[in-house]
Amino acid sequence: MIEKSIQLFQRAQQSIPGGVNSPVRAFKSVGGTPIFIKNAKGPYLYDADGNRYIDYIASWGPMILGHAYDPVVKAIQERAVYSTSYGAPTELEIEMAELILSMVPNVDLIRMVSSGTEACMSALRLARGYTGRNKVIKFEGHYHGHADSFLVKAGSGLATFGIQQVPGITVGVAADTLVAAYNNLDQVKQLVAENKGEVACIILEPVAGNMGCILPRPGFLEGIRRLCDEEGIVFILDEVMTGFRLAPGGAQEKLGIKADLVTYGKVIGGGMPVGAFGGKKEIMQHISPLGNVYQAGTLSGNPIAMIAGYTTLKTLKDNPTIYTELDEKTVYLKNGLNEVLASWGQPYVINQFGSMISIHFSSHPVTDFATAASANNKMFNQFFHAMLNKGIYLPPSAFESWFLNNALSYEDLDETIKAAKESLEEVK
Length: 428
Ligand code: HOZ
What we know:
Radius of gyration: 21 Å
Mean pLDDT: 96
Distance between the termini: 24 Å
CATH architecture of the largest domain: 3-Layer(aba) Sandwich
Strand order of the largest sheet: 4-10-9-8-7-5-6
Bound molecules: (4S)-4,5-diaminopentanoic acid
CATH class of the largest domain: Alpha Beta
Structural class: alpha/beta
Largest sheet: 7 strands, mixed
Number of strands: 14
Number of domains: 2
CATH topology of the largest domain: Aspartate Aminotransferase, domain 2
């Protein structure tokens, strides 16, 4: 029964566009009514009607330690009494920056912002300012937030809703955005050759998470690294999803690759609105007030956001076994899902990397946007609803990764696998 969610959704649509403050949440592609959340603890979400769900979104990544993780809640409460914002520097910001630098060795300087969108937008401006070039290469189905330059052939909500072209993006901005297929190094090389001396940066999600979870082919990231070195292009890794999730040093550490600039969001804020971009001093010193590439924010380095992020990152740094535990849980889930999907008898693919995982109802490997989009996503939508009815909260789109949190128990995973078996019987 989701009576209260239905009422809340109707009411929300009177005052909020589409009833939601971020489009994917509207359940528009899977159909039905979005579940309105009242509270959450550990691995569970509770909706306005009192239903409990095992959560595989984890706020789209940030809640890696589980919801309302006691040390994070306590740190926020203790800090809030000293005021919630100053618009002036604090020691806590230095501690946060030092902690990040200790976890990500190739970041010399880091600037805090308030979202992943801001982080990627600022990194792009910096790359342009640093190189004096205008063009950016991005990848189809990758999502770097909603800054104009990135909304060309983007993943996440744009893939979910089939938005090919976003009204409001000027022709000039679109012309400066070059798009390649993920995992296709030859295409990237061709774009660079056709735009010789004009490409400021190449930006990508090292492990794609906005078209399901898609892994980089061996050699793909290394090839981009080489190309950037040869052509004087700034290599930006968007670690908004993977940063501090795949390893203390993110995908860079896990995959043994080093970018020139890295962008962060999600886990870095421990559930508060935080993003960051950082990298080599040689590039970062062009940011204002050191240089003339302007970037600013009243709420940047906000003390409440910083203490939530700091406490989360410190917990991860001091307890690296969390990553092993998360990986083991995700592999356990993958194996269980594999078993029930195999006995179901229809084609499927499971992609998994660290604590990111997605199911695609596809007869071919899912390695890029074209293969993700050609899967039977109608089937995914049925599966999604069948799982939701059984108390399993998956992303409401086949074009999103699932994120595991470490509060999940093996009993929760078994319950999920059992629900998947029953749900598949309802999928036609
Ligand atoms: N763009 C997010 C997923 N890739 C979804 C954001 C949200 O609805 O919270």
